[in-house]
What does this fold into?
Amino acid sequence: MCGIVGYVGERNAAPILMKGLEKLEYRGYDSAGIAVHDGKNVNIYKAKGRLKVLEERYPPSEVAGVLGIGHTRWATHGEPSELNSHPHVSGRIAVVHNGIIENYQRLKPWLEEKGFNFISETDTEVAAHLVNHFYEGNLLRALKKAVALLEGSFALGVLSADYPDTLVAVRKASPLIVGIGDNENFIASDIPAILEHTRKVYLLDDGDMVVLKKNDVRLYNSLGERIRKEIFHVTWDADMAEKGGWAHFMVKEINETPKVLHDTLLPRIDENGRFSLSEISGFAAMAGGLRRLFIIGCGTAYNAAMMGKYFIERTARIPVEVDYASEFRYRKPLIGRGDACIVISQSGETADTLAAMREAKKRGARVVAITNVVGSSVAREADEVFYTWAGPEIAVASTKAYSAQLMALFIIGTELAFRVGGIDEEQYSAMLSALIKIPEQVQRVLDNVARIQQVAAERFNAKNVFYIGRGMDCPLSMESALKLKEICYTHAEAFAAGELKHGPLALLERGTLVVSLMTEEALIDKTISNMIECRTRSAYILGIAMEGNIKAVETSDECIMIPRTMDCFAPMLAAVAAQLFAYYVAVQKGLDVDKPRNLAKSVTVE
Ligand code: F6R
It folds into this structure.
């Protein structure tokens, strides 16, 4: 995790670096720092805490220099402190790093023997000393030699006090892009950091190195050979990465869901009014003979995967196995030729997901990525990609990207089901029509925000929250509970409603909030029995159900109604209600919604 940024040009570097870091704070925010070359020396500015502490201590307009690197940290090695924050310095070299250097403990004594003195607890300091060790006046050569000894994942930005006009960087298994401007160039962990200045970028591959001057960008492969790359033109604009008047990114992003679902759905409907899987035609061609489908992800993406399982098994009757990427990668999975694997990742950079994907490929499965980031590692390594067109998601808690992941799975699942004869023409048309209505129906959920806000204001103090549901409401409960955990720091658990009596009921006490998801109407009577079991034990029941569901209203203390759709697609509507509920609980509690404690958006370490 962590975010890095670099600038070389004619303007003052510090304000550009700080602005860029602001856009990367979602990647980590326990300390920050910049290194700026003032023409003679490289000066270092660091502070523990949020970026604003650094900005207050060192007003960027007062920091002179047109070349610099910056870093916002999510601590992995060594506590958040000024000493451990980046940039790290060795002699005339300054380094910022995103990722983990796995062999730093082996390299450290070797470097100490050579006389290098370590002052921090970080793995990064090894990289700084290593570059310094190999530095004989040629920065690129030193970096290349250092990289050859480093194991793990890293994106490094490096300066030397000897070169007031040059920045070098390398990418290995941690994201890094190069921004191309007029008389200025940039590096960054992610596009929003530089979008204000340019939409032209190079997407670096593993092992690529770059030497930047204000008028020159030279790209090299890991062997040090010059390479050329296509310029990637970013289609979304800076506004999409700004709050645009909303109090937080999270609520802005939830409110973008109708557009996101529309953008994910419409390009997949062809001129004959049918779903087109042309982007994943190899996978689609396997439909008839597909032995098994695996769906893999982490966190929210895992919860989306679980929803995919319920939907695809129900409609296409193809066996689906769902796994946490962190488990799949090590459990010697029984996956091979004839199997397909869908890998879900908003960022496309999650370390566990990438490793799991490589494992599936190695074992012969066809791998399809559902991801939101064009050119991300997952997108580049998958056999085929089905993009979610959700635009940049900045808030740490995933909302609109989750909705888009569900939409992607429902499109793929519906088409798959039709191809294998799981549903007939009439059912197919009904499902397609129902999906087309979803964006407008999500808007109606959003329009009902006052009601959700009111319940959140009444219930925000609950210490324990159960989310219960049956069928597809079960994976929806998992995702809804995760939102509350992440941003409200409230103990929330998801249970299959039928499981309550097998243990969890013992936890129930007066005041426990039970959120009952009731979109699976075929199972409503069963869920209602479980709700009554909770009510008789003095729990407070908040229901989420489709309009007209009288039983749900009668059995709940309070019930949030969502528009009526097919049961199987209703989770897309209920998810938005649950996201809003978590958001307003966090606001009531006065918490930092977009940057919850201990978390970071892009988990590029194990
Ligand atoms: C939860 C959340 C995380 C991510 C998980 C996977 O709100 O954001 O649980 O879903 O870290 O991230 P991606 O989808 O980028 O692979």
